[in-house]
Amino acid sequence: MGADQKQHLELTRDLAERFNRLYGVKKAPIFKLPTPLVMPEAAKIMSLTDGTSKMSKSDPSDYSRINLLDSPEVIARKVKKCKTDSVLGLEYDNPERPEVHNLLTIYQLVSNQTREQVAKECASKGFGQFKPMLVDALVAHLEPIQKRYAQIMSDKNELKSVLNRGREQAEILANQTLNHAKSAMGFVLPD
Question: What ranges do the domains of the chain cover?
Fold first, then answer.
């Protein structure tokens, strides 16, 4: 979850807390309180075309983002066109070079390295050396996701079956929670 989505979760949490306070019992709340799961380094990934604006699927330029199903060739083309500079030495947290920070963060996340490891690895590199590394890391990171997607999409009947089973299970849980909430509020439930 991105940091910009946290406000929605906070509203849901506030509503659940209020309902539990009014109708629940301390040991047995009606609603579970949602908790955000935001990786600090991934809280806000910036655009590939402008390191000062958030990466977004609603950006009109497809070159501003990496999509989960982008082919290796498309990923390479997008990374090649990323806004960069010609200064040697890539570093985090330089306000004059927001794109550098952003691309290093993306590389850190998809290569499963620490910030310190990436900073050391890229301290003396230029973008000519770094961009192919970023492409390779992105392709490797997305490959299992893309394979699983292709596998799932190859059998539409199995996909429909899985979705129906999930809907049925969610319906059972939702009805149990709804009946519990109605009962707590004093509604008479049908037998």
Answer: 1-38, 44-142, 154-184
